[in-house]
Structures are given as structure tokens and as C-alpha cells.
Amino acid sequence: MALPWEFLRKGQTMAKTKTKPKTNAKLQPDLIPGILLFAFLPVVVKGQLVNVTLGKFSWFQSGEYQYDFFMYAKSIVFLILAACMLLVVLDRLLIRNKPLAKSRIFLPLFIYGAFVILSTLFSVDKTLSLKGMWQQNESVWVLLGYIVAVYYFYQVTEGMQDVRIFLTAFGIGAVWQGILGFFQFIGKDLFATAPGRKLLTLGLDGTTGKQLNFLTQGSSESVYLASYTANYAAVYLLMALPVVLLLAWMAKKTLVRVLWLLLGAVLLLCLYGSGSKTAIGGAVVLILTAFLIFIRDRKKRILAVGICAVGIAAGLVVYGNVRGGIFPQKETYALQDLIPGEDGVTLKFNDKTYELCPVSSDEGDSLTIYDEDRNRIPAYWDMDQQCFVAQDDALKELKFDSYMDSGTQNLLMQYQDITWEFVKANGSPQFAYINFYKRGDEIRTADSVLKGYEKLFTGRGYIWGRAIPLLKEHILVGSGPDTFVEEFPQQDYVMKANTGRWMLEQIPSKAHSLYLQNALQTGILSLLCLLIFWGSYAVSSVRSLKQKKDSSFFAVDAVILLSVTAFLFMGLMNDSNLAVSPLFWGMLGLGCAMKKTDFSR
User: Fold this and answer.
1) CATH 3.30.1330 given to domain 342-430
2) Sorting pLDDT into bands at 50, 70 and 90, what band is 329?
């Protein structure tokens, strides 16, 4: 029986070339780790009860263990594959005496690796950097594994036959993902079925599977594949679509071509079902890049780009009319600060300062409010609303409560849909804020940029606005791999609440930007090294595409560039992750390998 990838190996190139293609149909063992990475790593899932050390912080939930169903297993499998890749490279060099292919393009990448190690040595939390963060698991070993992966693909990919094998493996991986995504799209998540739950909870307590709650089950906008989140799924789909279409174009048999095209249609359906708004921009960039690459005639290229530009502009106008604007207007917030003190809480509201002072006596509980001039604002108990209400129109949006419970003074303030709770235990020096996890904590206003645009790009404006000011401390050395959660100002509760209740109730654990993530965790200079490496590949690819006349060779090189471009564009609003990043580095290695002078066509 023919291996799946032999459908492509048996076909000849689409145009005549000077170099004869390989005729040996035997699968080279050196390629196996790469095949497994493309074909099976994306769908690796298994529940694991992992040790989480963040319970020592008051802003995180108490407890030492949390479940991880997607990233932990992927990290273990990837590290095993990376170790195999390293052994293959060493075996080729030391045992078989095969000289390594050399290229100066990798120098910035190796320097980046040095910064990764340096940032780990000076990490704010070496445990996280060495073991990885819960539900992310991009430890120092994984980051170094990415470097090993791209270098491995560069070394073992010796000709078009090898590239076809790897791309077909990518296509096979897309088949598994397409099946998962299709059922998720129709509201029948396979992971939510009895067999799916057993797979996810393999090796765990028998009751764990029954307790799993799939929040998006039954929704047609809940496609996440085996990638953990819909955004990660969208990145994968945008990378996979060009590859699947290429496989359809290169297929020799009509049935195989139809099957690849059918898979492409399913992946498009999944992309729509992911509900990712960033994917819309990614698809547009992908189409524009494809036009620039595949349309050789200058006039036709300008016409195609112009039509796309008009379509994009029209789409933005329609989207703006429906959603009330393409970008949110700059906002001002009535609630500006809450500062717990000895006798109460200082409230900054609509540019005015108030003192909220609870009083408990034998006669009952009351609330005294003072303005910034120390004038008393009467507050009375509203029997209908069961709360204190200030007799001041400036505070009419606020509701209060004050009571003594077992020697602990409690003060509550409700604004919009959020209740702020403060307590002062007997003998405590001042009030403490009780956060979402019912733990006493401080409220600290963080340095920020993008003020007033916190809701930009679904809350990314808030995260970026608080993360960017931290960069000045990480020019040379970052905070350490997977340490964003500790470096980020988690106690900025007031602005979290202004962004939305959903933001207040979560722990920002990632930068939601590949570039900001690297700059913060491994240093700005490390990001510069990555940009030089990625840019060098892009420039060499563009130059190479201008010179290639072989249609098959041109198409493969172009599709790899498209896939890499999709990942880098989506990286503007998505962080690096084990669901997609290993594939990106693998594709990057393939693209670099095709520029080797001894590459066989």
C-alpha cells in the first residue's frame, strides 16, 4: 500500500528543469521527526494535573494544581521531537560525516537563542521559565526547541521530494483538524463526546471527564480544533489553507485533487466558525500577498490589488456602520481610582475625590461620605434597593453597603455591574480589597499608554497599554520565558473593571502579540534578532521567486512564504503558542532550505 505522501512523490514536476528529480521512493528516516511534527503534533491532547506556583500571589486563585488539556501534552511531544531532530543533525554530522549546510541567515537566530538563555538565568521566576506556564508551556526548552526545529528542517531538506513529503504531512495534519473543526462548527464537539472526554482525561481521575464543561459547545462560532482557543485555530487555518490548495494543484489524480479541495472548503468553513476577527485581516493579507506573488504582469497586479483595496474599503465602511465605528472612540471613565485606607476607602469619581467611611455602632450601621473639601454628603438607606444611596447627583450611579460581621468591618460599592468589596478585620491597619478569588489584595494603578483605548481589539488595548511601559526595563534581558503573567501589573483592578467585567475576572497571562511577548520575556534585542532573521528569509524568498521559472518550484516556494506571512501577521494580535508555532518554525526551515545552492529540484 502506498504511503500517503507517495501521491506527490510519484508525480513529475509541472515544468522541465535542468536538475533531475530524485527517483528513490524510500522514505528517509531523517524525515520522520519532521513528518510527525506536521501531521500529528497539532492534534495531540491529554489532560494533565500540573503544579501551579502562582497561588503565592494574592491576585491568583489559591491552590497548587490546575488542569491542562491541550498545551502540556503538546509541549512534551514537541520536546521529544526536538530531541530527535537534534540527534538526527548530530548523527549526520558526527556518525555519517555529512557536512552541515551553512548559511549566515541563522546567525541572528543563534544570537536570539543566547538571549533566551540569558533571560532564563535572570528570570523573575525561574520555575516558570524552566517548566513553563500553565496552559502555555513555552519554557526555555521549548524556545530552544524552535531553533533546533528550523535548523533541522534546513539540514534534512535536500530537494523537492523532501519538501513534498513534509507539505503532505502538513496536509494530513489538516485532515485531522478539519474533522474536529467541522463537527465543532455544527455544534457537535468530538471532545465533548464520551470517547472525547475519555481521551482528554486519560490517566486522570474517572470523575474528571464528567465534570468537564465545554463553554462553547452547541455554538456555530466555537471552532477551536485541537488548538485550545479559536484564535490559535484561526492562525493554524490561515497557515494550512495555502498548503492544502497547493497539494490540490500538484495532485496528479483527479480524485486526490478533489479531496484536497474538499478539505480546503472545510478549512474555510472552520475559519468562519472560529469567529476570529483578526483572521479577516489575515485572510486579506494572504490574498494580497498571493496576488503580488502569482500575478506577474504589472498592470494585472495593480488592477488586482486595486480591486482588493476597494473591496476592503467597502467592507470596512459596512463594518463601521454596523458596529458603530472601525476603531473605538477614546473613552473617559467615571471610576478613576479606589484607595483603601485606615478609616475607609478613597474614591476618585468623575475627577472628584470622596472619602467613604463606614460606621458601625450599637445603633446600627451607617455610611459617612465626605467630598474633597471635607463636606459631609448625607447617605440614607433605601428600603427598596436595600442599600445606602448618597444624596448627591454626582454619585447617583453608585450604591453602597456597610456592615460589621464577626468583628470585621465590610464596605461594598456597586457601580454598573461590578460590586467592589473592602474589609477591615479587627486589628488590621487598613481596609483591603477582596478580589474575584475572594482574596485580600491591594489596588495599584499601573503605568500605561493607549489611555482611553483599553477596549481596542477586544481588550488588547488594555493589555498592550500596561505591557509596553514595562519594555524599558527589558532592553537587554527579558523577564524570562513564560513569565508574562508575573511581570504584568495584575493589581490594576480599576482599569480592568473599566475595560469590562470579563477583564476584571481574568488573569492576563499572555501579551496577545508575538512581538510584544518576545520583547518583554526575552528582551528587545532578542526581538530585533528575530526580526532580522524573519526579514532575511522574506527578502531571500522574494528574490528567489523573481528568478524561478519552474512553475512547481515557484508555487511551493511561494506557498511556504504565504504560510509564514500568515503566521507573522496573525502574530500582531496573537502570541506564540505550541498549537501553531512548531509548524511555523518548520515551514520557515523548509523555506530556508529551498535557498540552498545544492538544493535538488
Assistant:
1) no
2) confident
